[in-house]
Description:
- The structure is a homotrimer.
- Chain A is α+β, with helices and mostly antiparallel strands.
- Chain A has one domain: CATH 3.30.1330.40.
- Chain A is built from three helices and seven strands, in the order H-E-E-E-E-H-E-H-E-E.
- In chain A, the strands form two sheets. Chain A has a five-stranded mixed sheet with strand order 1-2-7-5-6, with helices on one face.
- In chain A, a hairpin with a 2-residue loop joins strand 3 (44-45) and strand 4.
- The longest helix of chain A has 23 residues, at 61-83.
- Chain A is globular, with a radius of gyration of 15 Å.
- The mean pLDDT of chain A is 96.
- Chains in contact: A-B, A-C, B-C.
- The B-C interface holds B 23-30, 32-33, 35, 37-40, 52, 96, 98, 100, 136-142, 146, 148 and C 34, 91-96, 100-101, 103-110, 112-113, 116-117, 119-120, 128-137, 150, 152.
Amino acid sequence: MTSTPSxxxxxxxxxxxxxxxxxxxxxPVVLDEERAWVSGQIxxxxxxxxxxxxxxxxxxxxxxxDLARRAALQALSALAAELGSIDHVxxxxxxxxxxxxxPGFARQHEVANGATDLLVQVxxxxxxPARAAVGVAxxxxxxxxxxxxxxxxxxxx
Amino acid sequence: MTSTPSxxxxxxxxxxxxxxxxxxxxxPVVLDEERAWVSGQIxxxxxxxxxxxxxxxxxxxxxxxDLARRAALQALSALAAELGSIDHVxxxxxxxxxxxxxPGFARQHEVANGATDLLVQVxxxxxxPARAAVGVAxxxxxxxxxxxxxxxxxxxx
Amino acid sequence: MTSTPSxxxxxxxxxxxxxxxxxxxxxPVVLDEERAWVSGQIxxxxxxxxxxxxxxxxxxxxxxxDLARRAALQALSALAAELGSIDHVxxxxxxxxxxxxxPGFARQHEVANGATDLLVQVxxxxxxPARAAVGVAxxxxxxxxxxxxxxxxxxxx
Lengths: 157, 157, 157
């Protein structure tokens, strides 16, 4: 890939949403020694959770996968706000995808692909992280999907 | 803030509980290259879990929030035991709050504030971490809340 | 311990399984600056999950503990494939054990010991990580146990 991540984003026709505002006592992004921890992202619009409920019972898997993708875009927006540009991301190190799951749902990894497919589209192999996908009992504000990111950054200052 | 975290703790009238003892094959704190990983804290007294059960059905949210706060105090105690003093904490990087949630409970972020509000009271902005709050099906010994911490430390030797 | 981890493994009569193949858009292991993040391991044989279901209702705790142990062996296999040898692991920093739990199950920490007991057998005190054990609603492909690892490595090139 010769283009930069921000160029790729434009080529893909993707626009970053507004950076997420914290819904409690935490930072959207914490930077420390070439690492950036991004807080768990749930997808909101105008302050409300999009498609609340449990995946499978209330939210179809295709919708959940798209929410994971949008959670990744929100994370990129938070990183751009903190780092100046997503081009200062060196590598995605680890992603955890929490899926609020109705009993018996067993396709959390497919939901998770919504987030990590996007990262690979934008960052190439540097967007392919270590990953865990798990099914949880519930999430803040009834969100069906929450995604957390750890990133390696270029030296900043 | 001109006072140190340990001075702030005293000013707030807070006393650290005894450092937690591992309930299995793990370390309370692992130090490596100016980072400290603190194992998931559940609140116990004399070896028993305080207020066992699921949040909302068995444990009111106000109690759960206070348990998150006490889990943070336990973590500070574990860090003090390992680092010599909580003043050797440079910054809280990431906190994960697991809330054992009855069906439909959607206020895990408010429970999580119990932990991170305390960190900000004691450490100021250095206590404001990246955070994920999730609702889980159950926790060891029926604890309603478990909190895990990653900290940046001053250079140690 | 005077023997190396790979010698210990042999002395214990343990053989590493084939390295796990990713079931989605992620890397089995990501290396960065003397750290290795290992993706969440679920135990599979010939591409199928072993003992699917919820722990307690469908999968006895003794079986779950053994699956946690096998998940740790899979992680060692992934690390060996990426680092050349498990002897390039310097220290286990953090392990998260997700246990798909039937309602009321409260012994996730005992399941987790299956993974961390093995690490201590093979690596001695360097195998004793910070740990969180939590009960989740479900896991990919109905796996009863998923284990995630963060490791400090020797300097690599």
